């Protein structure tokens, strides 16, 4: 009996506890993008402070990093943006895509107007 209990406990410990592959709550119902696919960056921003994400929908940002912004979430007063972060040396680290608070960056280079309103989908907030 003790052996079965120990085996069950061991299997439980090995189960994944991360948020990967899990649907997370939506942050917004709509987003503003440069095009209907949100495939063109709206602007380039520079991080003015470090940001450590609370869950897998968000990306970590270090002060001074450049962020390519692809979408601005609409429902909550543009509090969150979506974009990709590249390390200071291209190729040193693969780009990460996710959300971050707009308050931790400053706009440095406007690229295209964010004039297209697009509905968010569950995939916008899915953890990979």
What descriptive keywords fit this protein?
128 residues, 31% strand, 10% helix, mainly beta
Would you write up a description of this structure?
- This protein is mainly beta and 128 residues long.
- The protein has one helix spanning 2-14; strands at residues 30-33, 43-47, 66-73, 80-86, 96-101, 105-110, 116-119.
- The chain is globular, with a radius of gyration of 18 Å.
Tell me what portion of residues adopts beta-strand conformation: 25-35%
Annotation field: number of helices = 1
Task: Write down the overall geometry.
Answer: globular
Helix percent reads 10-25%
Average the pLDDT over all residues and give the rounded result: 80
Order of helices and strands: HEEEEEEE
Structural class given helices, strands, pairing? mainly beta
Largest sheet: 7 strands, antiparallel
Report the end-to-end length measured between terminal Cα atoms: 38 Å
Number of distinct beta strands: 7
Low-confidence runs = 5-20
């Amino acid at each position: 009996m003790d052996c079965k209990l120990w085996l069950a406990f061991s299997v439980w410990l090995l189960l994944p506890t991360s948020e990967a592959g899990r649907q997370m709550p939506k942050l917004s119902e709509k987003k503003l993008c440069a095009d209907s696919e949100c495939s063109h960056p709206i602007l380039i921003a520079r991080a003015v402070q470090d940001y450590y994400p609370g869950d897998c929908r968000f990306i970590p940002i270090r002060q001074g990093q450049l962020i390519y912004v692809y979408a601005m979430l609409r429902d909550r007063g543009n509090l969150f943006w979506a974009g990709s972060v590249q390390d200071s040396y291209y190729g040193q680290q693969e780009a990460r895509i996710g959300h971050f608070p707009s308050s931790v960056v400053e706009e440095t280079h406007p690229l295209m107007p964010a004039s297209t309103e697009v509905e968010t989908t569950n995939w916008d907030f899915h953890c990979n």
